[in-house]
Amino acid sequence: MADLAAALRHAHPELEVVRKQAEEPVYLVGGAVRDLLLGRPRADVDLVVVGDAAALAQRFGGPAVEHERFGTVKVEVEGHEIDIATARSESYPAPGALPVVVPAEDIDADLGRRDFTINAMAIPIDGEARLADPHGGEGDLKEGILRILHPRSFEDDPTRAIRAARYAARLGFRLDPETEELLRKADLDTVSADRRRAELERLAGEETAPRGYELLAEWGLIELRDGGLELMQAVADLFEREHWAQFAPREEVLISAALGPPGGEELLASMWPPTPGEGVELAEQRDPVELALARAMGADWIEHYLTAWKNVTLEIDGNDLVEAGIPEGPAVGRGLRAARRGRLEGEVWGRDQELAAALEAARGVA
Ligand code: ATP
């Protein structure tokens, strides 16, 4: 890029504050450099200091939160969140294990622990703004290639294979052939279920999630459920709508759409549409994930449940039943449910009818 310094100042003016306080070399690193070179807007910033991250952060005087991770702090500068890490290098005692971490003497050592060349670049924020690019990331970025830094990369950390799907889907990049060969051999079972799940969730959080999962399946790293991709796309479309985004956890639904195992959604989607009263009772016993999947599979009644039936309320409440002599306990719930069913089915109108229906049901069973 012709004028990296100007691009950096323009994209992240808040870094001027850090530059003024920096006594040691400080670099913009990772995804922030990649996105700057691509001209993609980005909110969050990662910095690496060859020195003490906490000491640098303290000089701003702003609030700093120390992470549990090695030498990393989060600070707020002019309303922007910035992660500052101490430069470090890592070695892996066993495939998939957490790395042993030691401070690095220079930025190149820190870049050497990263996942792909396009994420292994740094720009010093000292105003000179030359690119530190020891692995040829800029060239790969121009050509749209994802390339690991060394042949053991996926053995050290197989979650990088999931990260590859994330970047490939988001940026439309392809794998370098040698990287692809090694990636196909990655063994996701050597990492903890939590770490694997965390990267799968990040992938599911992307706009291009269905493509990312399609790639993982093509690479032989996951097995999709039958019709999984179409279901993912239907779920992604569903969650464009605010009421769904509020009702169910999008990432979890997408992962379930991709990987299964199929649950109660298949039954919900294949059944005869229930009446409003039945539908509410049925839906209330189900997990929102299942309901979202069933809706994406075509169960229209769940849309009515979410946008209309669910919001039907009664004019009476439990106190009215207790005042009318119903003992506190399950009979009250039974009565209120009956009144609501009556309202949903259009058989009960207004407070008096609600109370009559509720009392009848509450007293109906001794
Ligand atoms: P995004 O653009 O989605 O925010 P990012 O590229 O900033 O993603 P992060 O997961 O936030 O990625 O990590 C920041 C940087 O740390 C990456 O760009 C990469 O250099 C490095 N990194 C993160 N996770 C790994 C990993 N598992 N192995 C190696 N390097 C990693």
Quick take:
The protein is of the alpha+beta class. The chain is built from 21 helices and ten strands.
Q: Measure the end-to-end span.
A: 81 Å
Find the CATH superfamily of the largest domain. Beta Polymerase, domain 2
> Spans with pLDDT under 50 lasting ≥5 residues?
none
CATH topology name of the largest domain, in short, is: Beta Polymerase, domain 2
Query: What kind of sheet is the major sheet?
Result: 6 strands, mixed
**Kindly state the mean pLDDT as a whole number?**
93
Q: Can you describe this structure?
A:
The chain has 366 residues and is an alpha+beta fold. The protein folds into four domains: 140 residues, Beta Polymerase, domain 2 (2-Layer Sandwich), CATH 3.30.460.10; 70 residues, Orthogonal Bundle (Hydrophobic Seed Protein); 80 residues, no CATH class; 48 residues, no CATH class. The chain is built from 21 helices and ten strands. Strand 3 and strand 4 form a beta hairpin. The protein binds adenosine-5'-triphosphate (ATP). The site of adenosine-5'-triphosphate has 9 residues, from helix 8.
